[in-house]
Amino acid sequence: MKFPNFKDLILFEDNDFIVINKPPFLASLDERGGSGETNVLRLAKQYSDDAQVCHRLDKETSGALIIAKNPEGYRHASMQFERRKVNKTYHAVVDGHVIFDHLMVDLPILNDGNKNVTIDRAEGKRAETIFDSLKYYKHYTLVECKPITGRMHQIRIHLATQRAAIVGDDMYKGKPVFLSSIKRGYKLTKGEEEQPIMKRFALHARHLVFKGLDDQDIVIDAPYPKDFATLIKLLDKFDA
């Protein structure tokens, strides 16, 4: 897969940090087993020798990702993540008409390795996410997700517990969106197999606030990538 030039992904840069708008299907770090494929860390190191990725986004998730350019920056960001001082906001499109009004989901998550994540009240680690519905469609809802903690798959599994799986997230029973399901009279040409509007789950890290080394807020807004923007545009047009 061809990814854009690293420079073109940059939303913010100073002497200590780079924040990029991570494209979907690009891993944040080397994956276990080291497949040798391109990832954010490798691209960042080509751009800035001491670059370190400060947190991670799932491979399919797009959006704002913080990279430190030096050890001081990395330590500074890591402490903020540890103390839950980084303000993160994600947008997700979920199945169904779901009304969330500052709903706090507080369900512990157990990560037993191999990307296998479950809700486990006895063994799981505390996980909290706040959800607000932003926009209602006939068959879908655009949801704002604010994770307080940072567990693996946290937003995805917490939404699934609310019967609001993210569209396209087959791991948590989220179904893809097809144009034929929202556009009346949509017809495929004979022998054509319909592709989903988005070929991944619809989750995007939209907004991020953290402090630079000078203790000033760094505020980031990450525009939707093309596939997410197209999904919203088509829902606005055919499912409003």
TrEMBL record:
PROSITE patterns per record: PSI_RLU
One Gene Ontology molecular-function label: pseudouridine synthase activity
SUPFAM superfamilies: Pseudouridine synthase (SSF55120)
InterPro entries hit by this protein: PsdUridine_synth_cat_dom_sf, PsdUridine_synth_RluA-like_CS, PsdUridine_synth_RsuA/RluA, RluA_PseudoU_synthase
Pfam families: PseudoU_synth_2
Ranges of residues in domain Pseudouridine synthase RsuA/RluA-like: 16-160
Domain of life: Bacteria
Gene Ontology biological-process entries: enzyme-directed rRNA pseudouridine synthesis
Similarity annotation: Belongs to the pseudouridine synthase RluA family.
Protein name: 23S rRNA pseudouridine955/2504/2580 synthase
